[in-house]
Amino acid sequence: MTELELKYGCNPNQKPARIFMESGELPLQVLNGKPGYINFLDALNSWQLVKELKEATGLPAAASFKHVSPAGAAVGTPLTEVEKKIYFAENMPLSPIACAYIRARGADRLCSYGDWAALSDVCDVETARYLALEVSDGVIAPGYTEEALAVLKTKRKGGYNVVQIDPGYVPKAVEHKDVFGITFEQGRNNYAISADLLTNLVTDNKQLPEQAKRDMILALITLKYTQSNSVCYAKDGQAIGVGAGQQSRIHCTRLAGSKADNWLLRQHPKVLGLQFVDGIRRPDRDNAIDVYLSDEYEDVLAEGVWQNTFKVKPEVLTAEEKKAWIATQSGLTVGSDAFFPFGDNVERAHKSGVQYIVQPGGSIRDDHVIATCNKYRMVMAFTGMRLFHH
Asked: Does 211 fall in a domain?
């Protein structure tokens, strides 16, 4: 098949729409459903991310995409009991690729609502059963077991989008796209991200453990497929906060940092102790936790809305308690797709427990950024490579 007609483009008025190859066959098959234009943008960007992440780490990898940027990305390390609870994966058999997707989805469950999932490995039944529980638009993978495909075909009244891609497909070295009737051409970004990029440690502290190296690699590959400007916080083999598409670097750092803080706070004893009403849907639990962690929650309590969600009126998690909990956290990594122009980005990252930073370097104020890292005994690597993605 050299082309696939689509219902419409980004919006219903944008017709005709299709994906096609100028020569040769499309390297993918639609096994179920009818993916749309944005679905395929998510699918092809997310597939590149997980393919590169597995190649760089040797571990199964997954991503959760929304609007052509990752809400989360991760490798398939085992989940702790706390992680199983905050990702709603308790009492489920979990394969490595299932763990990878659950972690990717768990980075920002609110933003992953209605996501596109990408898997570096064949989708097994454990992953399919977890996907079946979540609100998701579709999945791309190099293959599916018969049992997994049968489970996925029951989702969304049989209309769930399932795409299989040829893992051996290599795109052309030069890519094109049209904007306002004008064709742009550039070399494809084939820059390989590996531990070799992490040797230029510019801070006084040069102690970079293997786990931090893995998180740096994960953050950089995630940023490579995130709409710029972008910043990614990572910990324990998964992104925990992605700030995408901001015009200001500090706004990226703040946005990603607030998402990372929410991920950390989901593990607070008060959040783990929330008692939900019976039969509550997973998205409703996510929304309730997000509201509970917001600054407006005391107003919600006063209105009595909690009775629709919780069995017992939750005790407020105060601003002081949130700050104290986050202050106990450490070992986080931050990656940036371009240089930090000021030390304020480092100051914001420090508030969320960041100890490791990876960025291209090259600012006229690199000395100030480095000095700010030294103030907090952080380790910072300069890669010399910008990772803009548009």
From this structure: yes
